[in-house]
Amino acid sequence: MKTIIVPLDFSEQSENALKVAASLAKKHDSEILVLHMLELNQAIISSTEGYYQEHTVFLLKLAEKRLSEFLDKPFLKGVKITPVIKHFKVFSEVNEIAEKHDASLVVMGSHGSDGLEELFIGSNAEKVVRHSKVPVLVIKKKIEDFKPKTMVFASDFEMDNLAAFKRAKDFASLLNLDVKPLFVNTPGDDFLSSREIYQKISQFQLEAKSGEEVEIYQDYSVEQGVLNFAEDYNADIIGISTHGRKGLSHFFMGSIGEDIANHANIPVVTFRI
Q: How far apart are CA 170 and CA 100, in angstroms?
């Protein structure tokens, strides 16, 4: 794992993400690229008037100072840190930076959900997830020493998930995780017989050239099945696939991936289809 990208907004959530990234960087001898977006108006940036140019330079220097102070933390001791400041917020730039620096992972903090308020949907984390071609690890709470051992990868085992499944296996191998593929069977229109499930999984595994045993779990919804099984399995991470600009994978129907990312108490990692 050569490089890890951590988008920062100086919040408690981004510090939680930075702490997890530091744990991974120390274990894998990685560099952390901390990315801060200034969110300046494009008209100000491109203006030739002296006042706006001076104002831009002032804000840039202020951001550099604040970032330097934010990065002065004991848990970053011994970790190679490279700060990157962008003038305005374009989430596709995260992917461009990842490609330029051959990054293996983006680690991002998120509020998740608070009561009935869904803060992940439409949030910065969700926007980064939609654009990133590298895995995005979403962290929602403080983790002192991130040493994951198990990951549940939830899938509907449709063929368009093959690439994401392979990326999940590569990610698990990189972190030396025990990965458990999961299929959740639900009642109603999405119900499949045992025979249909085994046929679907067998075809998928044949194409994926994979022999892992897939856990078939019964529940009233895919989201609840993933969360319940992850808890029963004592998983450290939940893996799900994404459809890029279309958002998180909808599996059978509805925004199931987004619901899982919102309501999971453990880190969620996304893999682009």
A: 20
The domain of 214 spans 148-273
Question: What pTM did the predictor assign?
Answer: 0.84
Q: Residue 173's domain is classified under what CATH number?
A: 3.40.50.620
Give me the sign of the Cα torsion angle 184, 255, 138, 244: positive
Amino acid 89: pLDDT: 60
- The amino acid sitting at 166 is K
Q: Are residues 138 and 153 in the same domain?
A: no
Q: Are residue 108 and residue 68 in the same domain, yes or no?
A: yes
DSSP state, 264?
Answer: -
10/135 same-domain check: yes
H or E element that contains 14: helix 12-28
Tens-place pLDDT, residues 38-48: 765 555 545 55
C-alpha–C-alpha distance, residues 264 and 190, integer Å:
23
Check: CB of residue 78 under 8 Å from CB of residue 85: no
Domain stops at, among 143, 166, 185: 143
Amino acid making up residue 104: S
User: Would you list the DSSP string of 106-144?
Assistant: EEEE---EETTEE-STTSHHHHHHHH-SS-EEEE-S--S
Q: Name the domain boundary from 143, 177, 199.
A: 143
Tell me the C-alpha distance between 222 and 250, whole Å. 10
